[in-house]
Structures are given as C-alpha cells and as structure tokens.
C-alpha cells in the first residue's frame, strides 16, 4: 500500500506510508511505519508488475487459494486466520501436495515458454510467483 500511496501523487519526491495500527503490537509506532519514496524504481516496478499479474488473473477468472508457503513445506500462515476457510481445501494435505507439485513442475522451466499452459494457468503462475520470496528477507522500507 505504501508504494501505491507514493505513486498516486505523481511526483518523484512524493512518499507513501503504511502504519501498522494493531493495538496489541509490541513495538513503538515509529517502528510500525513503512515509508516508500516514489523515486524507488525497484519497488515501483515490482508494484506495477504485481498489479499487472493480478489484473490478468482477474480478467481470466484464474483464482487459486495459496494453500502452502512458497517453500512448499507447510500450510500458508494466513490460512489460520482466514474467515472463509470452511469453503476452502485448507487442511487437505493431498491438495497442498498436488498444488506444490504442479507449481514445481511448471516452475522448473522458469523463463521458458510452456506451450502446454492455457492462459488461466499462466495467470495463476504469474500471481503465484509474486510471493515466491524468502520470508526471512527484511522488508525494504525506510522509516
């Protein structure tokens, strides 16, 4: 969101902030604020790519629950607090395994065009890869 706010102003000197306001957060407010400058081209490009991938998936009707962490080893951490989990395959280890195997088989040829993929599958993989980063990485925000 901070990137969206930064880019919305239209000027390179603009900045956007996102503040985590959870009252039970144990850190000081200044450490819960993410600031992004509109001139951060790496974050701006990543944001635009994420928007493009998400809108392409929406246009193609390609929605897929993220049942597993990018590592493929365990259930996605946000599933524990999902309000619509009853309508999902959450908790189904077979579904997680099939999803993990499908993503791995399609990602093995990363960068190469896969003629066997239909537009919906391409859109799903593009959105899936948006989160394909280590959860140990520190966020790239300034305060």
Compact summary:
With 143 residues, the protein is mainly α.
Word description of this protein:
By secondary structure, the chain is mainly α. Mean pLDDT is 80; it is low at 133-143. 38% of the residues lie in helices and 7% in strands. It has a two-stranded antiparallel ribbon with strand order 1-2. Helix 2 (41-60) packs antiparallel against helix 4. The chain has 4 helices and 2 strands. It has helices at 2-8, 41-60, 93-107, 119-130; strands at residues 15-19, 33-37. The two termini are 15 Å apart. The chain is globular, with a radius of gyration of 18 Å.
List the helices and strands and how they pair.
Layout: H1 2-8, E1 15-19, E2 33-37, H2 41-60, H3 93-107, H4 119-130
Antiparallel strand pairs: 1-2
Helix content: 25-40%
- The end-to-end span amounts to 15 Å
Shape verdict: globular
How many DSSP-defined strands?
A: 2
Round the Cα radius of gyration to an integer and report it.
18 Å
Give the structural class: mainly alpha
Please state how the strands of the largest beta sheet are arranged side by side: 1-2
Roughly what fraction of the amino acids lie in strands?
5-15%
- Chain oligomer state: single chain
What's the number of helices? 4
Low-confidence segments: 133-143
What order do the helices and strands follow? HEEHHH
Note the main sheet: 2 strands, antiparallel
> What average pLDDT do the residues reach?
80
């Amino acid at each position: 969101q901070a990137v969206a706010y930064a880019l919305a102003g239209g000027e390179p000197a603009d900045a956007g902030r996102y503040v985590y306001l959870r009252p039970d957060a144990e850190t000081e407010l200044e450490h819960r604020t993410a600031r992004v400058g509109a001139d951060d081209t790496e974050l701006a490009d990543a944001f635009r790519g994420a928007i493009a991938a998400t809108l392409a998936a929406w246009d193609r009707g390609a929605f897929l629950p993220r049942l597993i962490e990018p590592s493929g080893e365990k259930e996605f951490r946000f599933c524990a607090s999902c309000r619509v989990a009853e309508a999902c395959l959450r908790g189904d280890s077979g579904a997680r395994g099939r999803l993990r195997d499908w993503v791995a088989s399609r990602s093995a040829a990363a960068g190469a065009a896969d003629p066997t993929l239909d537009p919906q599958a391409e859109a799903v993989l593009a959105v899936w890869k948006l989160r394909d980063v280590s959860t140990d990485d520190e966020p790239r925000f300034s305060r």
